[in-house]
Amino acid sequence: MSKTVTPAELINEYNAWTVQAPMVRYSKQPFRELCASYNTHITYTPMMLSKEFARSEFARAADFSTSNSERAIFNLSRRKPNGEYEKTTEPIKGCLIAQFAANEAVTFSQSAELIAAHVDAIDLNTGCPTQWAYEEGIGSALLRKPEVVADIVKTTYDRVGSKLPITVKIRIDKEERRTEQLIKNAVMAGASIIGIHGRYRTQSSTTPVNLDGIALARSFSSVPTISNGDAWSLEQSLDIKDKTGCNGVMSARGLLANPAMFAGYEETPIECIDRFIDLSMSYGLQFPLFHRHIYYMLESKLSKTQRQSWHNVISTATALDWIEEYKESVLY
Ligand SMILES: Cc1cc2nc3c(=O)[nH]c(=O)nc-3n(C[C@H](O)[C@H](O)[C@H](O)COP(=O)(O)O)c2cc1C
Fold first, then answer.
1. Distance from the CA of 22 to the center of ligand 1, in angstroms?
2. Where are the domains of the chain?
3. Atom of ligand 1 nearest to the CA of 253
4. Counting CB atoms within 10 angstroms of each CB, which of 19, 39, 74, 198 has the fewest?
5. pLDDT single digits (tens) 96-150
6. Which residues pair with 124 in a beta bridge?
7. What separation in Å is there between the alpha carbon of 110 and the centre of ligand 1?
8. What is the pLDDT of residues 186-226, one digit of tens each?
């Protein structure tokens, strides 16, 4: 029998720290289960729109699915009061967090209630920088509205806080006092984890992550924190954890390229691709998404000709043949 704990307990009281980032389109059930099976302790759904989720059964079915097997079970050691870990381990279930974008408390808290039985926490997105999101007042539009964030978190905490923790994912702000105010408001309102993406709203993902900025943001938080940005390998992630002092390290593009990264693999192993195929087939991942995931996993290893030939693959049957041929070419 494994034990179930909250995401904050997982990264604060046990030696669990690896996190798969929320990714629109990509962090769906098969990918989450894949990452979890390779030592990822916490996984996030893609950002969903609370306005739609709360309103429509159709949106709920289209946006979210899960299963009993999606969380992996990890043998973890509990942290002792002196900061060291017990020598013994116990089986603890990983956590799944549902992320939503919202600009008001009503639909966010309704969504929390609707999804509470299926996830371990609900996360408020305050980082999405796209223009349409900004204009809707969601995502990064909330970065400088700490009072709205506090209202969303507090209302949800009052409504479902006893059964579902609330977490908040932010970006750092050029003006440090704004980051401080945002984090303090979120924590005071009841947030149990702060995820910190170390880039400003206006910075693209090609800008190197600001680890000092994350460390500073962490110092404003009295609850566990997760560092996010430029974690491309296990080694790099451990270094990020060290430098930022956060409890956890979250990866987006690193895991897309190599879902086995947190298990110590330097590149996507063939068995990971096989596992992804099985999960995608059994959960019914739509073909364009399946195609894209395989591309990301193999991208660094493919020649220009191989990339072109993969782009010409337009059905599951030909994709499976293509992958078999690719495997033969690397294995023999
Ligand atoms: C394809 C893709 C989709 C993303 N979708 C989301 C999302 O739904 N919610 C969110 O908070 N961030 C989203 N992000 C941002 C990531 O969660 C993460 O903050 C960012 O990519 C930095 O991490 P990285 O340097 O490890 O890629 C997305 C990023 C990518 C690459």
1. 6
2. 7-258, 270-331
3. 27
4. 39
5. 999 999 999 999 999 999 999 999 999 999 999 999 999 999 999 999 999 999 9
6. 100, 168
7. 24
8. 999 999 999 999 999 999 999 999 999 999 999 999 999 99
- Positive or negative, the Cα torsion across 9, 124, 181, 205? positive
Catalytic residue among 35, 95, 128, 246: 128
CATH class, 7-258 region: alpha beta
pTM of the model: 0.98
Structure-block tokens of residue 27: 């962090």
93: Cα within 13 Å, side-chain hemisphere: 15
Give me 62's structure tokens. Answer: 């289209």
* Model pLDDT for residues 12-64, shown as the tens digit of each residue: 999 999 999 999 999 999 999 999 999 999 999 999 999 999 999 999 999 99
Which residues contact ligand 1 via a Cβ below 6 A?
21-24, 26, 46-47, 99, 125, 127-128, 169, 197, 205, 228-231, 251-254
CA–CA separation, 220 and 252 (whole Å):
24
Which of 24, 134, 169, 246 gets mutated to test ligand 1 (max ligand atoms within 8 A of its CB)?
24
Q: Is 197 labelled a binding residue?
A: yes
Q: Which residues lie closer than 8 Å to 129 by C-beta, 6 or more apart?
A: 139, 140, 171, 201, 202
Beta pairing, strands 90-93 & 73-76? antiparallel
Kindly report the backbone phi and psi dihedral angles of residue 263, in degrees, each rounded to the nearest multiple of 5, phi listed first.
-90, 5
